[in-house]
Amino acid sequence: EDGKKIGRTTKLLKPGEVIEQLDVRTIAASPLECDVKLEDVESFFGQFAKVNSVRLPRHVADKRLFCGTSLIEFSTEDDAVKVLNESLVDAGIELELKLEKDFDAERAKQAEVVENSCFQVGSNHKNISNAEANMSTGDSAEENGSPEPASDNVDVQKTDGGPDSTENVSEAAENKVSNDTKDDEDDPGENVEESVEKVDVKTGFESEGKETEDGDKYLDSSIQTGENKAKGNERLTAAVYKNKDIVSREDLKGVFQKFGTVKMDSQGDAYYTNLFYEGSNLDDQFEMESSYQAGQYFNQPTDLSVESSQIPAQMGSTMKKGLRSHNFTTEEDNLIVSAWLNSSLDVVLPNEQNSKTSWQRIYEYFHRNKNFTSHRSSISLKARWATIKLAVNKFIGCYAQIEARHQSSVSEQDKILQAMLMYREMHQASFQFEHCWNELRYQPKWLAFVQKKKTKKLSSASPCASSPCTPDSINLGETDAQGDAFVDLERPLGIKAENERFKRHRNIEQVDDNSIAVLIKEMKVEKKQMNEKMELLERRYVQEQKRLSIMQMQFQMEQQKEEERIMSVDTTDMPPLQAEYYKCRQKEILDKVGGSMPRE
DNA sequence: TAAGGTAGGGGCGATTGATC
DNA sequence: GATCAATCGCCCCTACCTTA
């Protein structure tokens, strides 16, 4: 305004320089837990220096998953250097810290490997194994600077997922060289020496894959012995054999033993192939002391898996197949109920939000909050909840029926006893979940759940609404006094479902003309009946009005007669008080008549 | 934009087999 | 022998992606 030129005191940096500065201020920290939050990372590193921002990059192979490494941008380069030189431990695990550019470089490599593997995945049902093998191949080829097609490399894999797979594997291991030869026979362009050389190159067992056969289990593992040795850290390393896929059971035992007692049976051979990707064998060969122990193992970030924190702590589902554990205790039941109530309402989470299932969360809640010994797997908890839910639902019905009787002078305890008796009569079994019912009965989530069930039943049973109710339909029936107090948290229909519904209705309209005609006829009849009713009511109303007016006239006539009588009374011979009364009444009447008469 | 396909996930009944 | 935890398979629902 005063004519003086103003400008920045400090010159703006060029974009490239900004990025460069950002790079030196940003460090990558790993391994972090899969469900780690931005705030957690920020507060953790905030203890050491001022944090500008935190990023949680996704995995290169699966964008739904956190890659296990967080990028922390500090306010100054000095801060970044200071933290980089620190030896930080999070959740008992020493964090590996590196500059962002190093992390980016590794990530670019990984992306390339994943891309290669995607193109080279075979068409058979063992895509995962192949992809994993190909990734390994890609890496080694890259290291050697001599890219080779994956199919040219030696691949000792089990080719059948059946029970013989272990046998196949051991055979394959024993006859490695001969297999190599066989492979080479298939591909005449290669010779045995070349193959062996390639196997030797692959001393680093690198794998990166995803367990897709079971939707719950994502497994990204990367065993990088070469790197580990170089770093010299003391994290877990699985012994890796010259053949990339073969790990001895002793080595695995050694790895798993750090997290709990591992039982090994005597059967089976000494080698396992692609354990992590196809390895149901693991269940048979190794037994953790508890399923949760196993879960704990998979929660540990180890070098078995640089990004193993992505693996859900759910492993126990098949760990002790066929072994029935002890009965559920009241505490366990209550904790399951509590876990269910505390878990998210929306059980179907979008993929990009969280790959964990609601039962995984319930499982974690259960084991995090237990103050007793329990090794239940998520499947056990789920099954138990199903039992609890069913029984409590039935009991609610019984209790509602007892309530509906409106018995006077009956305490709540008596009602519960009666409901229990009714339950026993109806279901030939005693109700064993009173403790759960007490926990659940007033909880909004439970009430919403019950209501949802009820509406579902009503809608599905609407065509036969007059049909006799089943005990269960009575259970959740209109007498459920709690039903009105809930907030409707039911999810709306999805687009597709809504369209289906619309289409169905449209189709019904188009196709069923006859039924529409019948409906119209019925409606006309109904209308006629309604009109008749209305006429009847109107007639009654008019009659009633007439009757009222007649009564009113009668009353007026009687009143007039009375007034005339009062006016004609002679008060001369009456006692003074009586005379006074009549005079007052006569005056009143005169006033009334005078008021209504036109004045002159 | 609608339709079709696929994947993820839950519910539920039947079955199995260990425990009571 | 009864009970009940664990498992399995089927069905249904929803969201997302691809294709016409």
Automatic annotation (TrEMBL):
Q: Name the coiled-coil region(s).
A: 520-554
Question: Which Pfam families does this chain map to?
Answer: NAM-associated (PF14303), RRM_1 (PF00076)
UniProtKB keywords: Coiled coil, RNA-binding
Matches recorded under PROSITE patterns: RRM (PS50102)
List the molecular function annotations (GO) for this entry: RNA binding
For this protein, the record's PANTHER family field holds: F21J9.4-RELATED
Recorded protein name is: Putative la protein 1
What is the species listed in this Swiss-Prot or TrEMBL entry?
Davidia involucrata
